[in-house]
TrEMBL record:
Annotated binding of acetyl-CoA, by residue: V82, G83, V84, R90, Q91, G92, V93, L94, S95, S118, E119
Protein name, per record: Putative acetyltransferase
Record-annotated N-acetyltransferase domain positions: 1-155
GO biological process: one example: aminoglycoside antibiotic catabolic process
Alphabetized HAMAP family for the sequence: Eis
UniProt keyword Chaperone present: no
SUPFAM superfamilies per UniProt: Acyl-CoA N-acyltransferases (Nat), SCP-like
GO molecular function terms noted in the UniProt entry: aminoglycoside N-acetyltransferase activity
Length: 409
């Protein structure tokens, strides 16, 4: 079997093979673009070929930036379009492609990669761990009133998020530049968020609101008229579904939620991609009105260079931790002393006794601060070598807020 990078001439073969692997047929091109594979970077796509030259497997990677805790922006390869024809599964094709791809990423000087897992049981064995989570919130419109909480100790002073801005309804085709600019501002401050390169917007390659699918967009502007948030939505059979709500502050987010919940002629509002611990449910006058469903993992993280990855992100307390990290897929093992002082980390090999022993996939899960190390200790994934190790790790790895990723790739 041969694994090689593709050329422009291979694109049709690549697209046909990955669709066949999932049992689908390629979509028919539409005016204005919108084909998801149009954003693929040909030199970052791989084909697995049999001895007689037949394509039986595919894998690809997008060039993104990932926002880490502390608002650090780092290169991240977004692994996608991974598939093996049903006739060639369980013959080592997938493992060979994953090993080849990870080697290429290291050759590019990258220290982490990310993906969205089609199945939760596949990618852990390749060193990926779930690092961000998302859910869907459904609110009956007649129960959609927002509460106005009062500040403790100030009975006459509402502790509400003030908003002097405005909301304007536009068609998707009218506000492409606004969406791109607002999303870019948002993702730079949100741990776990990925960049959306300009070519994605230009090619309309992806899911709404990037794609050409018909959508209305509620654009929020601040008191000076500057766009600082948007909600992409559609209405069908009495349900208003918000694809994504992007806002650069809580006031804009609340204004967009109020707009959606106040829409006439709908019976319920569905908010897709609500991050964990988001205050939206607390803002409802009837907290039980919001029904959470579709709670699942989203972005998976794979570390390729542990010291570089740990020193790249921001930290929010001082401390020391010795991590004993196994990487079974690549046959590697390392023990590292993580020292954090004044929000910066140093990470070096050490012979000291470990505080925690863990798989590289578990380190990927805790890396963005969305999974507490103590949770994985209790689950039997991580071994804590003394009683205070998990508590210290929880405090060290926490982020300034829950990591969240909206981008589909």
């Amino acid at each position: 079997m041969e694994i090689r990078s593709t050329t422009d001439e291979d694109l049709d073969v690549f697209v046909d093979t990955v669709h066949a692997a999932f049992g689908h047929f390629p979509e028919t091109p539409v005016e204005g673009g919108g084909l998801w594979w149009s954003a693929l970077e040909t030199d970052r796509c791989l084909l697995a070929l049999t001895a007689d030259g037949r394509a039986v497997g595919t894998a690809a990677a997008h060039s993104f930036e990932l926002t880490l805790p502390g608002e650090s922006l780092v290169p991240a390869s977004g692994v996608t379009a991974v598939g093996v024809l049903p006739s060639h599964r369980r013959q080592g094709v997938l493992s060979a492609m994953m090993r080849h791809q990870l080697s290429e990423l290291r050759d590019r000087g990258e220290f982490l990669s990310v993906l969205l897992a089609s199945e939760a049981t596949i990618y852990g064995r390749f060193g990926y761990g779930p690092a961000t989570y998302t859910a869907r919130l459904t609110v009956p419109r007649h129960q959609g009133a927002l509460a106005v909480p009062r500040a403790r100790g100030a009975a006459d002073a509402p502790a509400t998020v003030s908003d002097n801005g405005s909301v304007e309804v536009l068609r998707r085709a009218e506000c492409g530049e606004i969406l791109e600019e607002v999303y870019d501002r948002y993702r730079r401050a949100q741990p776990g968020a990925l960049s959306r390169p300009h070519r994605w917007w230009a090619l309309r390659a992806g899911q709404p609101p990037i794609s050409p699918a018909p959508r209305y967009v509620a654009v929020h502007r601040d008191a000076d008229g500057v766009p600082d948030g948007y909600a992409s939505y559609s209405i069908e059979s009495g349900t208003l579904t918000v694809d994504e709500t992007i806002a650069t502050d809580d006031a804009a987010f609340t204004a967009l939620v109020r707009f959606a919940l106040g829409h006439d002629l709908v019976s319920q509002v569905v908010f897709q991609h609500v991050p964990p611990e988001h205050p939206l449910r607390w803002q409802l006058a009837d907290r039980r009105a919001g029904e959470v469903s579709g709670d699942m993992d989203w972005l998976w993280v794979r570390l390729l260079d542990v010291p570089r990855a740990l020193t790249a992100r921001g930290w929010f307390m001082d401390g020391e931790l010795v991590l004993d990290v196994e990487d079974p897929f690549l046959g590697e093992h390392g023990r590292y002393l993580l020292t954090v002082r004044d929000s910066k980390a140093d990470c070096v090999p050490t012979d000291r006794e470990p505080d925690l022993s863990l798989d590289v996939s578990d380190l990927g899960s805790v890396y963005l601060g969305g999974t507490a190390p103590s949770t994985l200790v209790r689950a039997g994934h991580i071994r804590a070598h003394h009683p205070g190790a998990a508590t210290l790790a929880d405090a060290l790895f926490r982020a300034e807020r829950s990591p969240h990723c909206l981008h589909w790739f």
